Predict the structure.
Amino acid sequence: MNSQSGRSGRKDQGPQGTQVFSREEVSRIVGEAATEEGSHTRAELTGVSAEISGQSFPLGSARVVVGRASNCDIRFDDSSVSSEHARLTHDAAGWRVVNLLSTNGTFVNDQKVSSQALKDGDRIRFGRVELRFHGPDAAAGGGASWLPWAIAAGAVAVAIAAALWIF
């Protein structure tokens, strides 16, 4: 029952059939789970202005440039939008919009901003183009914020079980 696996010398099962994983395998599993969760909880912008009303603009990476230029991630063909108008960034604190010295400014909920943290439902305006921000939890139906903690707790439990079984 405690036979060695051909994969990186790890033991397949511990006492009573408990699965035992190496640290590398736990990191890989946690990374895959986080990637799967992220794919279901992406933030997006939804058009409010007449020209883009109802259109969805997914925020597919942690750094998205909005503007009129062809190299922008989200492009608007509107003369009030600068070539590189603003940047949306995501980090551990959440999503943030940063104005990139645009001519007509970036506004969040009708307040001109140079940099502003975003909340679900915020209205963002680039020149005359207005959109609504939908945060990751809202896109998933809310309530998924516990998932990363549950994954981390599971990984810790597996690591402790593996350490106890090995020693």
In short: The first strand starts at residue 44 and ends at 47. The radius of gyration is 22 Å. DSSP finds three helices and eleven strands in the chain.
